[in-house]
Write a structure and sequence with these properties.
Length: 279
């Protein structure tokens, strides 16, 4: 009888959900969204420290960004998972590409929506060249350095072949690290050839399953209820909003060029990351 009375009030198992959302980049201006080790570390610590947790779920929606920040966050996930002996399950929302996929690989299992975007295992560097524009308006660019490579790829000077070659060497080293991480984490589950998987191409979650980039298709709540029961508790852990941002201030602080410059450029860059994947 007493067991029957307690059943309606019995709490189900707990699986904390950490949302890893946005472009991956260090720092940021007030009110700017983004994902970095500074943002992710306290969320992960809270999730893995939660009493009674049976696993930790990562809800990933990121087009990528900084390879260093991606690696730092992924390493923190693995460190905590091993310390707490908890399995980690990654769920791909719209996109887990490039650095976003780097984060997904930190999980023991990756579950994606069939229409999500995964992959983009490559390295990209982009910029603009303004030297012809400033020449048209009679503007002279003056640069003085104490090293011949200090002004490498200056957007206000003509591009040099040796600078591009140097950049490609750097990219190749970072790409090798990315490929090594994917191989380490996915192992024999990878089904595609290197010439397919590591070109920087991206695919739907459905195609990603065929290539071994994800383990199954599904949605977070339904998948976890199926695995842990209908009573599973899924507390979502998100960053605390800055006090000023709560009142709608944040990025509106400042005036003139100080307001327009950094915030506008950051917004344009963030938009460009998402638009690569049609989002």
């Amino acid at each position: 009888m007493f067991n029957w009375l307690r059943n309606p009030f019995r709490r189900g198992p707990t699986v904390p959900v950490v949302r890893l959302t946005g472009v991956i980049a260090a720092g940021g201006v007030l009110g700017q969204r983004g994902l970095s080790i500074e943002v992710a570390a306290p969320l992960l610590a809270k999730a893995f420290a939660m009493r009674g947790a049976k696993a930790v779920a990562l809800s990933i929606n990121s087009p990528g960004g900084s390879p260093v920040q991606s690696a730092l966050i992924a390493q923190r996930i693995r460190l905590l998972a091993e310390q707490k002996k908890l399995p980690v399950i990654a769920f791909v929302e719209d996109v887990a590409a490039s650095g976003g996929y780097w984060l997904a690989c930190a999980a023991d299992e990756i579950i994606a929506d069939p229409a999500s975007i995964v992959g983009s295992i490559g390295v990209v560097s982009s910029g603009f060249g303004f030297h012809e524009l400033i020449a048209r308006y009679g503007i002279e660019r003056r640069v003085h350095t104490s090293g011949e490579s200090k002004s490498m790829l200056d957007p206000f000077q003509p591009e040099k072949a040796e600078d591009v070659e140097r950049l490609k060497r750097l990219q190749s080293e970072i790409h090798d690290g990315f490929k090594g991480w994917v191989r380490e984490r996915r192992g024999t589950r990878l089904k595609g050839e290197d010439s397919t998987l590591f070109t920087g191409e991206f695919w739907t979650g459905k195609r990603g399953l065929e290539l071994g980039l994800v383990d199954s298709l599904g949605e977070l709540r339904a998948s976890l209820q199926q695995r842990f029961g209908d009573r599973v508790r899924l507390p979502v852990i998100t960053p605390r909003r800055r006090l000023l941002a709560r009142f709608g201030l944040g990025s509106r602080l400042g005036s003139g060029i100080d307001q327009i410059g950094p915030n506008t450029l950051a917004a344009i860059e963030e938009r460009a990351h998402w638009q690569r994947f049609g989002l």
